[in-house]
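User: Look at the shape:
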Amino acid sequence: MNTTDEPAAGEPTLSVIIPVYNDLDGIRLTLESVTGQTYPTDEYEVLAVDNGSTDSTRDIIETYCERYPDLVTLLVEDEIQGSYAARNEGIRNARGSIIAFIDADMTVRADWLESLVASHREHGWDYAGCEMAMYTEHETWTARYDTFLRGFPVERYLHERNFVQTGCLTTTKEVFDAVGLFDARIASHGDEEFGKRVHEAGFNQHFESSITMYHPAREALRPWLKKQFRIGRGAVELQRYHPENAESAHPLHPRQFLPLQPRDFYARLTDATDPTPRETGIFYALDYASKLARAAGSLYEQYCTTPHESTN
């Protein structure tokens, strides 16, 4: 399947959706990036979805709404806490025939939207991902680990597991009309579950190597571990609501707590960089810490939470 139909007269051809929660600097950085596009401003819209922020994030968005009244719109999703719920609110309000997602704190080149449209016209895709490059302003151990050993293997995930991380995902509106929205019950892995639905529905999935989006590495240990905890929770939620797609072991399985085999870890590390012995030891400790944080998230979700009742 694919769609190349032009939108109705007066409708933007693209909708850019940015979910955000308590990220003043991140949303400012991203809004500055997506409002500075070479693509005609009357042919796209920017939907910034505040997910119930408790700081001044919403105020930042409103300043951009005032500065670009015909381009930027503030939406609010404060009933369900989660990035997928925020994205769903954006999708429900999107008027474009193509929907492009970007996370708050990410940046793109000025020709990002122009390049997406050109790629869509050339390949006729329904669902696409692009390169995600990580960068850091401060060389912390966490940021270096995040860059070397985590990152965003978008092309591999698309080819091997049929999904694209939502931070660099672009789809046609027809995809959501056909397969539904993201499952907002899932804290993490919702992009994977959605991508598999898209694949099973027969839509054309594409990786566009000529487009790169930029994502900052997590420099501080605490938010980085918090992300790993959320990933662990998402794995259990995926098992709970979509067992046909789940691959994780039970939260109490011993392998959830065991460190990686040193030989396997070193092979993975040397594929990405040429580490010193000290770097190898520190990266190994961080890798084990991330695994334990995911295991803790899995245990918390399995035994300390109440399942959600609805998907959106």
In short: The longest strand covers residues 205-216. The beta strands are 14-20, 44-50, 72-76, 98-101, 107-108, 127-135, 169-172, 205-216. DSSP finds eleven helices and eight strands in the chain. The chain has a mean pLDDT of 88.
